[in-house]
Amino acid sequence: MKTPPPDTFEGQILALLPSLRRYSRSLTRSDIEGEDLLQDCVEKVLARRGQWRGINLRGWVLTTMTNLYRNTRRANPRDRLVELDAAEEMADPEGQADPLERLRLEQALDSLSEEYRAVLMLVVIEGYSYNEVATMLDIPIGTVMSRLSRARQRMSEHMKADNVITLRRPK
Amino acid sequence: MNETNPAVTEADLHAYADGQLPEAARARVEAYLAENPDEAAMVAGWRTQNAGIKNLFAGYEKSRDTDLQLVTPAEPASPWKMRSALAAAAVALFALGAVSDRFIPPLFERPPLQLAQSETLPKQAETAFLVYASEVRHPVEVFANEEAHLATWLGKRLAIPDLKVPDLKSLGFHLVGGRLLPVDNRPGAMFMYEDQGGERLTVIVGRNKENRTTSFRFASAKDVETFYWIDGELGYAVTGEISRDMLRKVAEECYRQFPS
C-alpha cells in the first residue's frame, strides 16, 4: 500500500485523521464506537469528495461526521442504554487525572443528547467559535448558545448528583 | 443580569469561559464576576469542565498503523474486518488439524502467537485466583445462570466483539460465573470454573495495547500454577491448584475457543 501524496484528497484526509479520531471519540461512548464513526465518516467523505468546495476541509469533514453521528444515533436509539458499560480503557496514559473523576466526567458527557454533545465538543475540544459552529451545524447562533448552556448545566447537575463523598475522621 | 452591570449576559459568560470574548469586553465581565460570586463559581466550574473534557480526549489525537488502510479503501478498511479474516484463517487451520486426526493440534503448530511484554499478567492472575477462588458465597459477580449477559457485559468492557465464555465441560469443569477486574490497570475479565470435587480454576483476559507476541508460558508459585499467553492485544491466563498437565489442557481449550 502506498502513502498518498500530501496534496491529494486522500493525503489530506490522512493528515487530518488524528484530529478526526479525537473528535469522533469525543462524540461517542467507547473506543469502538469512536473508531466505527471515524471509519464510516472517512468512507463517506471519500465517496462524496465532489461535494467539497475546496476550502476548509477539516470543517467540512467534521460537519459530515457530526451529521453521521446524529443520524446513526437516531437510527439506533437502543445505543442510548449503553452508558455505564461503555466506558473504555483510556488511550491517554499521559494526562493522568484521577481515574474516577475521568469516569464521572465521561458518564456526565454520556448523559447529554447528541445535539448538546456535538456543540460542546466543537467549542471546547475543536476550538471553533460560536459563529463557526452555527455555520457548520446549520443552526442559528442562538441555538448554539442555548445548547451550550444546557449542556453545561446538565453536566454540572450530573457531576453533582453523582458526587464523591469525602470521608472525614471525627475530631 | 444585575443592576451595576446590566450588559453582561449569560452568553458573555460562556464566551469568557471559552476564551472567545474580545479583549475589550473581558474587563467588564471580570468586574461583574468580582461582584457576583455565584456566577463566578459557575464560570469557574465551566472552565474546570472544559479542562477535564480536553484532557479526556487529548490522547486520542494520534495516528494509527491502520490509518493508511482507511483512506485507501481498496484494501480492507476496518481492523475488525481484518481480525475476522484472521479468525477465519485460524478456524481453517484448526479444521485442517482436526481432519489430520489430531483433535486439538499441538500449540506449537498453531499460527505464531505473539510475544509477551507484560510479565505482570501471571502475577495478577495468581492474585485473582487466590482472592476469588476461595470465596464461598461471592466468588463471582455474575453467576453461570446469566452466562449470556456475562459474555456481553465483559465483552463490551474489554472491547471484544462476540466474546464467548469458554466451555470446559469436556475437561470436567463447569462455569461458576465471572467478574470484572482490573488487569494492567484496565477493565479485564475473570471466569471461574469448578469440577465435581469443587476444585476451582480461573481464566483471566486483559487487554493491553503494548502486548507483543508470546507463545504459551508457565508460571508457578507454591501450589498455584498459571499458564498464560498473549494473542494480539489480549493477554490470557489460566490459573489453578491443579496438575500442570490438566492446566495445560485447559489453556489449550481456551486458546482454541477464544476469538483470535
How would you portray this structure in words?
The complex is a heterodimer of chains A (about 170) and B (about 260). By secondary structure, chain A is mainly α. Chain A is built from 7 helices and no strands. In chain A, helix 1 (about 10-25) packs across helix 3, helix 2 (about 30-45) packs across helix 3 and helix 5 crosses helix 7 (about 140-160). Chain B is built from 8 helices and 7 strands, in the order ααααααβαββββββα. Chain B is elongated, with a radius of gyration of 26 Å. Residues about 75-85 and about 95-120 of chain B have low confidence and may be disordered. The interface between A and B is large, with 55 and 43 residues.
List keywords for this structure.
heterodimer, A: 171 residues, mainly alpha, 7 helices, globular, B: 260 residues, seven-stranded antiparallel sheet, 8 helices, 19% strand, elongated
Structural class of chain B: alpha+beta
Q: What is the radius of gyration of chain A?
A: 18 Å
> Which percent bin holds the helix content of chain B?
40-55%
The CA-CA distance between the termini of chain B, in Å, is 61 Å
Helical stretch tally of chain B: 8
Task: Write the H/E string of chain A, N to C.
Answer: HHHHHHH
Largest protein interface, residues of each chain? A-B, 55 and 43 residues
Tell me the fraction of residues in β-strands of chain A, as a range: under 5%
Biggest sheet strand order of chain B reads 1-2-3-4-7-6-5
Name the average pLDDT of chain B: 80
Dominant shape of chain A: globular
Number of E strands of chain B: 7
Total strands of chain A: 0
Low-confidence stretches of chain B: 75-86, 93-118
What percent of residues of chain A adopt helix (DSSP H or I)? 55-70%
Largest sheet report of chain B: 7 strands, antiparallel
Q: Identify low-pLDDT runs of chain A.
A: 78-96
What are the secondary-structure elements of chain B, in order, as H or E? HHHHHHEHEEEEEEH
Oligomeric status: heterodimer
